Amino acid sequence: MSLVTALRTGRAVQSTSVGQVVSPAGVVVQTRGYAAPAKPAKKISSKFRPNAGKDNSKKRAARDAGLFRPMSVNNLTDPVFQSEQRVSLQLPLFRPEAITSTAVAKAMAFPDNESKALKAYGLPTNILVDYLLLSKPCSVVREATVNVLDQLDKAAGSSSKETRLVFTGKPGCGKSYLLLQAVQYGIQKEWISLYIPRASNLVNSSTPYAYDARTQTYGQPVYAQQVLKRFMDVNQNLVQALTTQASYPFEERAIGSDAPLVDLINLGLEFQHQAPNVLNALLDELATQKKYPVLLAIDDFQALYNTSQYRDPFFKAIKAYHLMLPRALLEFASGKRTFSRGAVLGALSTQHTTYRTPLELVEALGLEPQTPAGPYVRREAELVEYAKGLQNFPVPDKLTVDEAASIFDVWQEAKALHIPRGDEMFLAKYTESGGNAREFVQKGLLRTVAM
C-alpha cells in the first residue's frame, strides 16, 4: 500500500528517525524535518576571568616604555656612535661678493635667511632628494655660475627682452642647480624673484581649471593662489614699497591706481576664483615698475611648449598657451611682454618623457634635433612665435676634477657615504660617471657600499 493510500484510509505509519517516515510497504520517505524547532545550544561558560579591582594601565605603560624605539642620535654620546651622528657642514656662505673667478670649484652653503625661497617655492625633485640627505642646502660654484651671474648684473639695468636665457645640456649636467644659484643670487641682490621649479605641474592636469570668457583662456585658481602666496612670502619686503599703476575694478573689491600692491595680492589670496586674474595683473605691475629688477626663473621650461593634459568640454587636449598662467610665462619668454628691468631664465629637463623638447624650441635654440626635422615636418606657428629670441646657454656636460672633488668632500663630510676617503676611490667614481654631475653623486657615491 502506498503512502497516499494509507493517508486516505487513515492507517498509521511507522516513524523511524526525525524527518523520515516508513510506509507499510517499507518505503522510506523524507518529511519536513527542517521545520521542526531547533534544539537550544548548550551554554558554554567563558574561561576568561577579569582582574577585578586591578589597574593594568600603569603596568603596561612601564613595560612598553622605550621598548623597540630607536634612541635619538643626539643621545648616542659614546665614541663608538660618533660616526652615525649627522654633522652640520661648515662651508662658506653663498654671497654675491664672494662669487668671483677665485670661488670656482668651491662648495658654498646658501644662507638661512635667503634660503626661505627653497621652502616657499619648492625644489626640483632631484635637488630635493640631495638636500634631504645633506644637513644644509649647498652647491658648488662652477665657471658657468660666474658667467650667468655676470649676465644678471648686466640685466639689472636693462629690459628683460635683452636677457632671455635657456640652460641646455645633457641630462644631469647641473642645469637645475645653476638655475637655483641664479635665484639665490637674485634674492640677495634685492631682485623680485618668481621661481617655478616644476613647470610640468602647470600642464599635467593636477589642479582644477575653469574657462574665463573675458580672456578666452583657462584659469587655474588653486595653482595661481599658491603662486601668489609663495611670491608674497619671498618678496614681501620689496613688494610693500610698490604701488599699482593701473586700476582694477574687481567684483569683490576695486583696486584703484596708486594703491599698495599688497592690496592687489591680498585680493587674490582672499578670493580664490580671482587668483588667476590677480596674478596676471601682478605680472603687468611688475613689468611697468622700475624700482626693482625682476627675475623670472622656470625649470622644466620645455613643458610650456607641449600640449597639456587638460581637456576642453569636447574632450580635446588644451594647448599650453590656452592656459592663462602658461601663456603669460610664454609671453615674457618670447619678449611679447617685458619687464622694464630684469631677466627671464629657463632650464630644460629630460626627466619627463611626456614633455619632451618640441622641434620649434629645438630649432630656436640651435640644438641638434632628436626627432625628424625635415621640411615636410609640421611646425606649429604659435610655438615658433613663442620661441623667438631665446638665447641658448649651454651648461658644460662634465665636471672638472676640482669641481668633482668639492662635491666628493661635501658628501664625505656629511657622512652620507659608505666608502673610504681617498684619491683612488674618488678617481674611480669620477671615471665611472664620465664626469656627469648626477651620475657622479647618485650612482657613483650614493649607490656604493663598504668593501
Notable traits:
451 residues, alpha/beta, five-stranded parallel beta sheet, three-stranded antiparallel beta sheet, 15 helices, 16 strands
Structure description:
The chain has helices at 3-9, 57-64, 116-121, 125-133, 143-155, 175-188, 221-239, 261-270, 275-288, 324-334, 359-365, 381-386, 401-413, 423-433, 437-445, and strands spanning 14-15, 20-22, 28-30, 107-109, 138-140, 164-168, 192-196, 210-212, 217-219, 248-249, 254-255, 294-299, 307-311, 317-319, 342-347, 391-394. It is α/β, with parallel strands linked by helices and 451 residues long. The chain has a 5-stranded parallel beta sheet with strand order 7-12-15-6-16, with helices on both faces. Strands 1-2-3 form a 3-stranded antiparallel beta sheet, with no helix packed on it. Helix 8 packs antiparallel against helix 9 (275-288) and helix 13 crosses helix 15. The longest helix has 19 residues, at 221-239. Residues 12-19, 21-25 and 61-68 have low confidence and may be disordered.
Helix content: 25-40%
Strand order of the largest sheet: 7-12-15-6-16
Structural class: alpha/beta
- Gyration radius (Cα, Å) is 36 Å
**How many DSSP H or I helices?**
15
Provide the low-confidence segments as ranges.
12-19, 21-25, 61-68
Which outline best applies?
globular
Measured between the Cα atoms of the first and last residue, the distance is: 96 Å
Largest sheet data: 5 strands, parallel
Beta-strand fraction estimate: 5-15%
Number of strands: 16
Mean pLDDT: 84
